[in-house]
């Protein structure tokens, strides 16, 4: 998909939500749907990027306590949004 096609696709998703909002959808539901669209875009963009979770020890050396898949993280974010 070209950047222009992607831009149009995203625009159309949000435009439809805006139309639904003006038909009586609550602001909370509107915000929730926007957040879900954003998370879906992240999940579908590159599921194999990893984030580092850890901290610095007293010597200032970076220690990696755990590496968690970006995909898993954003799936959990999506689950939390759905609970809102």
Describe what you observe in this structure.
With 84 residues, this protein is of the alpha+beta class. The protein has helices at residues 3-22, 27-45, 70-83, and strands at 50-56, 62-69. It has a two-stranded antiparallel sheet with strand order 1-2. Strand 1 (50-56) and strand 2 (62-69) form a beta hairpin. Helix 1 (3-22) runs antiparallel to helix 2 and helix 2 (27-45) packs antiparallel against helix 3. The chain is flat. The relative contact order is 0.13.
Features:
single chain, 84 residues, alpha+beta, 3 helices, flat
Mean pLDDT comes to: 76
Radius of gyration: 18 Å
What string, H for helix and E for strand, traces the elements in order?
HHEEH
- Which outline best applies? flat
- Low-pLDDT residue intervals, each spanning 5 or more residues: 59-67
> How do the strands line up in the largest sheet?
1-2
Overall structural class, as computed from helix and strand content, comes to alpha+beta
What's the number of extended β-strand segments?
Answer: 2
**CA-to-CA gap between the ends?**
32 Å
Estimate what percentage of residues fall within beta strands. 15-25%
Helix content: 55-70%
SS summary, helix count: 3
Q: Please describe the biggest sheet, giving its number of strands, its sense, and whether it closes into a barrel.
A: 2 strands, antiparallel
